[in-house]
Amino acid sequence: MSSRRNPLLLLSGIGISNIGGWVYLIALNLIILNETGSPLAVTLLYILGPIATICSNAWAGSFIDRVNTRKLMIGLDLFRACGIALIPFLPSLVLVYMIAFIINMGSAIFQPTAMVYMTKLIPKEDRQRFNALRSFINSCGSLIGPSIAGILFWLGTPYTAIHINALALFFSALIIQLLPNVDVMKKEAVGRSLTWETIKSDFKMVLRFSKVSSYVVRIYLLFCGTTIFMTAIDSLESPFAKRFFH
């Protein structure tokens, strides 16, 4: 790559955020399972992710196109870190679900924001290699994240993992802070006000694309449905393992 520093920093920030997401999810699963003993409560926690994605994706694209993507990524990391750090001190399960839903919305907005930032930062000729490394890091996150969570549970409690995950997101924000501001040359596109008319206009554009590219939309909906079913199955793993090995 023409410049190794910026891609490595971006990959590091995304990797830490991805691993932290797994640690947070597993730790919160065990916290809710220990407090309620109900597999249904754990399933509701998993369902919050897809619901938060649906609630945020309807307007997030319009918002991301009109703000500074680097600053938004930093803000989302700090926001999620504060929300995660707050969870151990919440007095009721309802508040835990509410904060978890808001955190999931932040994560759902972070992913497309990072994708936009990557596209602007990485030169076209280097994107194939960068995306391969990013996919590798994301795949490793699904292995390393649960492993780190298990080690933290062994050394402490799920609440220890929650606090360390919050620190990891703060560290991810510091790494992203070191990256360049790729929106500095597009001031006419960044900072435009986001109104209801703007969202409706963008939504109509999506509908026009959906009508022209119906095959792509069907594949996308099939992928989303498969992901939801896989999530539902994953939610049953921790209750089953706890009862089987108890």
Please tell me about this protein's structure.
- With 246 residues, this protein is mainly α.
- The chain has one domain (5-245): Growth Hormone, Chain: A (Up-down Bundle), CATH 1.20.1250.
- The chain is built from 9 helices and no strands.
- The chain is globular and about 50 Å long.
Short overview:
The chain has 9 helices and no strands. It has 246 residues and is mainly α. The chain is globular, with a radius of gyration of 19 Å.
Write the layout of secondary structure elements.
Elements: H1 5-36, H2 39-64, H3 69-86, H4 93-121, H5 127-155, H6 158-177, H7 196-212, H8 214-234, H9 237-245
Helix pairs in contact: 1-2, 1-4, 1-5, 1-6, 2-4, 2-7, 2-8, 3-4, 3-6
The main β sheet shows up as: none
Q: Indicate the proportion of strand residues.
A: under 5%
CATH class: Mainly Alpha
CATH-level-4 superfamily name = MFS general substrate transporter like domains
**Termini distance?**
51 Å
Strands, count = 0
- Radius of gyration equals 19 Å
| DSSP summary: helix tally | 9
Poorly predicted ranges: 186-191
The CATH topology label is Growth Hormone, Chain: A
Morphology call? globular
SSE sequence, one letter per element: HHHHHHHHH
Annotated CATH architecture: Up-down Bundle
The number of domains is: 1
Helicity level, as a percent range? over 70%
* Mean pLDDT figure: 80
Structural class: mainly alpha
